[in-house]
Structures are given as structure tokens and as C-alpha cells.
Design goal:
elongated; about 375 residues; Heat Shock Protein 90; 7 strands
């Protein structure tokens, strides 16, 4: 801590200065305090600030107590604590410093440079009120530092956490866009050989194999065209309103087992529809593979819930959600993209194992 090295240098300078007073006790005390502070700089715990307060108390005691103008240094550890430690420890340190500073008004070693006026003070002297004013002022400043600096430190920490989340989302978005760009390129490359296959298949003699081949090629072409339109929608998606049941109907068209998907407690969603549609498609598809009954529900808190009644999601799968490549067959990329699409629109995914698997999509 650079602050404690400065503290050690200050104490050493005070020790050098005390030698000119021709008093041994304050000189020795300040030298020992400087050495102690320098040695403890190689450790870091919250107790070092309390050690600094204790060392400062001893140094001030040997040099006139609260009459020493450098007694204002009691405020420095409080400020440092407010910026580095929790509010609890800051308040404890502020209370400790205030008590020790108060005691220095009554218990101190005579140091002529600072205490010569003390013996001329009478009860009616205005200087008495000045000393009590110093004590009151110290208490108010200590209270101010402990309160406002801890609030400031908390706000800074909160902003740093928010910035960390934004950076993480930015990196996730970059990875998602790279995957979608790769998908668009792959769709373009596949389209040419598919056209060739379709042309050759049309010249074959009529048979069930010919019809099956043409049907499969057509299915691939539809998937590629859907992928192209989806990528365009994802890049230019705007916020709009759509009923949950209408959104699920759009997804059912792409699912061969659409009859097992049921919507209960319909509701209106206001968000970017394209990313949400792609995320729901992957989640519902995985749910269908786990069980032959899937329920989609609009929750009271505005979340979208997708429930299946299979074996339930395992801890191994949960730990790998969000990774683009997973060792779990059928998962990995689908849930990775689902998570990224939901984060893209400011939402979050929650997986709960409860008589199957419950996926909650919380939208912003």
C-alpha cells in the first residue's frame, strides 16, 4: 500500500524533526513507529489500519496529545478504510479513532512546542472552547468521511460490477455474431451443391427414391432460406409486441412434433421478437427430445416458462450451458445460442430441476 509507505516516511520525518526538541522520548517513539509501519507494509490485512491508529495515538501522546496540530491525521485511516474496507469496519475504525482522539485531550506527555499554552488555560478561557470545538469538529468530519466515503465506494463497486457485466455481454455478442456470420457463409456455400443435386435428381427415372431425394433437397432449401431470413431479422430486430401463443405457433411450423407443445396462460410480450423466437425454438426442441409433453406458460412476473416432464436437467449440463461446445450430445451450441440471444435482448435464462426441467426466460 503506497499510503502506508507515505505514513512511514511521515513518521520518520517527524522523528528527525523531534531530535531538534532535544527530547529523547518522542524521538525514540517516532523512530520505532516509523520502523514498525515500514515492516508491516509487507503484509495486508484490515488490522493494519487499526495498527496505524494505535501507532499514531502513541506518537501523539508523546508529542502533546490533541494539542499537536498533526492530530488531524486521525482522519486519514478513516478515509482509506471507507474506500477499501466494508462499511462495518469503517464505522468501527471511526469510533475507535474518535475515542482515542478524545482521550488525548486528557492524557498526553508534555511537549513544550505544542503544550506551552495549556498551562495558561483557565475554565473561563475561550481557548477551552476552542479545544472542545476541535473534538466536536473531529467527530463530525469522521462521521462525514465514514458515511459519504462508504457510499461513494459502494457506488464505485456497483458501477464496476455493471461494467464487468456489460463487457461480458459484449464479448458474448461478438462470439454470437461470429457464429451467425459463419452460419450465413455456410448456408451460401451449401446452396450451390443442393441446386446441383436437385437438377440431377430431376433427371432420374421416376421412383420413390427420386421423390424422397427431391423432398429432402427441398427441405434443406427451406432450412437454408429460413436461416438467411433469421440472420437478417436478428441483425435488424426491433422491439415489438406479440402474443406468446402467436410466437409459439410460428415455432411449431418448424417442429415435426409440434402437437406435444401446449400454451397455457397466454400473455403479450414486448421485446425483440427474432432473437426470442430463435432462443425458444432451441429450448422447446430440447424439451421435446426429453419428453412427449411440453408446456409453455406466461408467468405472473412476466417471465416465459418452458416445462417438460422428463428426467430433469443434470448438474453437468447446467455447468456447460453457455459454452459453445458441450460434451453432452444434442446440447451445447443450441443452448449456447439460446443464452446469447436472450442476453442480446437484455434478459436471462434460469434452469430449474423440478419434476422434469423448468426453463425460465426473464425479459428486461
Amino acid at each position: 500500500m503506497q499510503y502506508r509507505w507515505f505514513w512511514a516516511y511521515l513518521l520518520f520525518a517527524g522523528a528527525v524533526g523531534a531530535t531538534f526538541s532535544y527530547e529523547i522520548v518522542p524521538t525514540v517513539v517516532l523512530f520505532i513507529a516509523a520502523i514498525t509501519t515500514a515492516i508491516t507494509n509487507f503484509f495486508y490485512t484490515k488490522w493494519l489500519l487499526f495498527l496505524d491508529v494505535a501507532v499514531l495515538t502513541v506518537c501523539l501522546w508523546s508529542t502533546g496529545g490533541a494539542h499537536n496540530p498533526l492530530s488531524v491525521l486521525f482522519l486519514v485511516p478513516i478515509a482509506v478504510s471507507a474506500l477499501t474496507l466494508s462499511a462495518k469496519w469503517t464505522w468501527i475504525l471511526a469510533a475507535t479513532s474518535s475515542i482515542l482522539f478524545s482521550l488525548l485531550f486528557f492524557f498526553f506527555r508534555d511537549f513544550q512546542i505544542f503544550t506551552s499554552h495549556y498551562y495558561h488555560i483557565t475554565e473561563s478561557s475561550p481557548f477551552t472552547f476552542h479545544l472542545w470545538g476541535m473534538l466536536l469538529g473531529f467527530g463530525l468530519v469522521a462521521l462525514f468521511l465514514a458515511f459519504f466515503f462508504t457510499r461513494l465506494s459502494g457506488e464505485i463497486s456497483l458501477q464496476q460490477r455493471k461494467l464487468g457485466v456489460l463487457n461480458e455481454r459484449s464479448e458474448s455478442l461478438k462470439r454470437t455474431l461470429s457464429i451467425t456470420s459463419l452460419a450465413a457463409s455456410t448456408a451460401h456455400e451449401i446452396n450451390t451443391p443442393l441446386s446441383t443435386i436437385k437438377l440431377i435428381a430431376s433427371d432420374l427415372s421416376d421412383s420413390e427414391d427420386k421423390e424422397l431425394l427431391i423432398a429432402e433437397v427441398k427441405r434443406c432449401e427451406e432450412a437454408i432460406n429460413r436461416l438467411r431470413f433469421s440472420l437478417g431479422d436478428l441483425k435488424g430486430s426491433k422491439v415489438s409486441e406479440i402474443k406468446l401463443s402467436s410466437l409459439i405457433d410460428e415455432i411449431k411450423v418448424r417442429l415435426p412434433e409440434a402437437s406435444v407443445v401446449k400454451v397455457v396462460n397466454d400473455g403479450v410480450i414486448q421485446t425483440q421478437v427474432a432473437p426470442l423466437r430463435e432462443a425458444l425454438f432451441a429450448i422447446i426442441k430440447n424439451a421435446i427430445e426429453a419428453n412427449d409433453e411440453v408446456v409453455v406458460r406466461f408467468a405472473d412476473d412476466g417471465a416465459i416458462e418452458v416445462r417438460d416432464y422428463g428426467e430433469g436437467i443434470s448438474d453437468e449440463i447446467v455447468s456447460q450451458i453457455g459454452l459453445p461446445i458441450s460434451s453432452i450430445k444434442g446440447l451445447g451450441l443450441g443452448l449456447f445460442l439460446s443464452k446469447r440471444f436472450i442476453e442480446m435482448i437484455g434478459g436471462s435464462l434460469e434452469f430449474v430441476r423440478d419434476h422434469g426441467t423448468l426453463v425460465r426466460i426473464k425479459l428486461a
